[in-house]
């Protein structure tokens, strides 16, 4: 689908590094996302470890094939140095509904790391990898009411393209960005 224009690399930024998730990161994601506020817009309940095992395996394959993925975000300094903060990056939209075939940028951080600027800085770094892979447009699908993620899309320069309903009837927004 999208072939890398250069050898795949791992982006980084101020205060964090992004790495292709390894097998152990499934456990880290499961642990760091085990909070009701983190999961509020992702089904409400903590996902089973097996969900993250499949997701991290898919991201490794996607990075090997296309040069980008949902990266593990790791604190580079400060009291959390070395801790997995969450993920950010891009992948093909994984559902039959919505922007099928398009590349979605996304992020999810542990609750303790909200409001510190990580999501926006890491998303900018991930967009560099997506751009280097030859992708020219990305979308962000955000649940209605998720004002923190809407704010990140605005800081990235994305524009609101449409309002949609999920198959379960929940409202959301599709934001777009030309790279």
Give a description of the structure.
- With 179 residues, the protein is an alpha+beta fold.
- The chain has one domain (12-178): Aminopeptidase.
- The protein is built from 5 helices and 8 strands, in the order ββαααβββαβαββ.
- The protein has helices at residues 23-32, 36-39, 49-66, 118-132, 147-155; strands at residues 12-13, 16-19, 70-75, 84-92, 103-109, 137-143, 159-165, 171-178.
- It has a 5-stranded antiparallel beta sheet, sandwiched between helices. The protein has a 3-stranded antiparallel beta sheet with strand order 6-8-7, covered by helices on one side.
- A hairpin with a 5-residue loop joins strand 7 and strand 8.
- Helix 1 (23-32) packs across helix 3 (49-66).
- The longest helix is centred in the first third of the chain and has 18 residues, at 49-66.
- The protein is globular.
- The two termini are 17 Å apart.
- Residues 1-9 have low confidence and may be disordered.
- Provide a count of the helices: 5
CATH topology: Aminopeptidase
SS class: alpha+beta
Radius of gyration: 15 Å
3D shape: globular
Mean pLDDT: 91
Low-confidence stretches: 1-9
In the CATH hierarchy, the architecture is: 3-Layer(aba) Sandwich
Spatial sequence of strands, sheet with the most strands: 1-2-3-4-5
* Approximate strand percentage: 25-35%
The CATH first-level class comes to Alpha Beta
The CATH fourth-level homologous superfamily? Gcn5-related N-acetyltransferase (GNAT)
